Amino acid sequence: MSEIRVTFSGLISFAVGIGSLITGLIFTLIVTRRLTPEEFGEWGLIGALTGYVLMFNPLISYWNTREIARGVDSGKTSLQSSLLFSFGAILVYLVIAKLVGSNVGVDFFVLFLAIMIIPVEFLKRSLTSITLGFKPQAAEYGLLSFEFTKIPIGLALIYFLDMGIEGVIITTTIASMSSIVILLIVARKKLQGKFQIKYVKKWAKLVWLPLYPRISSVFERSDVTAFTIISGSLTGLAYWTAANSISHLVNHSGKINRALYPKLLGGGRKEFFQENFVRVLYFAFPLTAMTLIFARPGLFLLNPLYEVAVLVVFALTPLTFLRTMQNVFSQALSGIEKVDTFEDSTFMDYVKSKLFVLPTLVNIQRGISLLSLVVLLFILVQYGSTELELVIAWGIISSITQLPFTIYLGFLVYREFHPKLNYNAIIKYLVATVIVFLIIYVLMNEFLIYEKEIFVFLPNFLPFLIGSGVGYLGLTYLIDPKTRKLVKLVFAEFKNKKQS
């Protein structure tokens, strides 16, 4: 496991993530410019409903990264089991889709067509978790294939053939299949073993452990369902989906941490965390600022109809930042947990372990968030709040309920790792973020003209977007030796690749 290079793998994952962000933006533009707000809301609902059954995928894939990272040959058994399990998930999805679809007035054929997403997602996620166990950066190649494939197919089916929501479903499925092909090639050596029933028996015996964290996924998916049923609004859900696509930018900073989990699983030193966490913040600060100052032009770019949802992005950005930090903390704590390496570990050993305690905290947080949202929505609906006001309230309550749990996880990490963080570097990153993005914000308000024609607006907007990234990198390069070292490391790595 010592072959995993945390910095290199993290940078590759981040670079691919940013590349996929660009391609994903192009696809999102295709979707939002061709679909009505109601259809875009239906797409958000499909994501929530398929999410209900896809949350069962970790019953098997949960163990893939942990076992592969430790040299266990369970890849083939996992992949075949995931495919079989997906067929049962389809039946569950049909029941849920029928119940929810009839309550919100969505055409059942559209929900039925989305069945094709389920088996390919099961396979893709299983292969991704296998790849993460031995070559973390290669897992991003599947994502890159997914993003690049869906652009030409989306243009054909959604933009030119005007197939609407059906075209989105078919495009997503085909793109996922291309991702599966790439991941199969990358992980082929880990899939050459035999199907071994002993692994299935172990997973079945411990099925409660990966199932337990899925409770939080039920809560998270249920907020979409609850909002749709209580408000009766697909347009409000479209605002939420559009705002999420903007605030999701912050999540990419967490990709720098992608390799830390398998590195710790394989016996890596705890000191890796403190260095990696500072790098996460190096990218998290500017991405958070970028989300905030580009909220309005970003929404306008998706569709001028969504420009009014600027405050939704403002409400969601703290939530996204806090959850990114939560994921970083959870991965670090889970990576040093060894309870599953001992064959004589009892049920109570697992209950006392971080593999159970951490999901318990997340389940509590998501449960409180969902309950708070339902109560708030009922009150606001009674007072005649608008769709937009309901969505803004949704974002605010989600961020507020997330804050104390992220802070507590940070305390657990501090107690376990005792990290010696480079606060001088962190302050420099924060100051550089404020300076660069404040200048960009002023310039953008002065010179950016909001033209409805996308091919007019986009060329005017891109210089501000690119300038913010270049400005931040340039300023931190000047004031921070760690940034200079990181840049030199990247160039040296590419130079070595070319020579080899």
How does this model look, in words?
Helices cover 80% and strands 0% of the residues. Helix 2 runs parallel beside helix 8 (164-186), helix 7 packs antiparallel against helix 8 (164-186) and helix 18 runs antiparallel to helix 19 (387-417). The chain contains 22 helices and no strands. The protein has helices at residues 6-34, 37-54, 58-69, 75-104, 108-113, 117-132, 139-160, 164-186, 197-205, 208-211, 214-231, 234-247, 260-265, 271-293, 295-302, 310-335, 347-352, 354-382, 387-417, 423-447, 454-479, 481-499. It is mainly α and 500 residues long. The relative contact order is 0.11. The mean pLDDT is 84.
Label this structure with key terms.
500 residues, globular, 80% helix, 22 helices, mainly alpha
Short description:
By secondary structure, the chain is mainly alpha-helical. Helix content is about 80%, strand content about 0%.
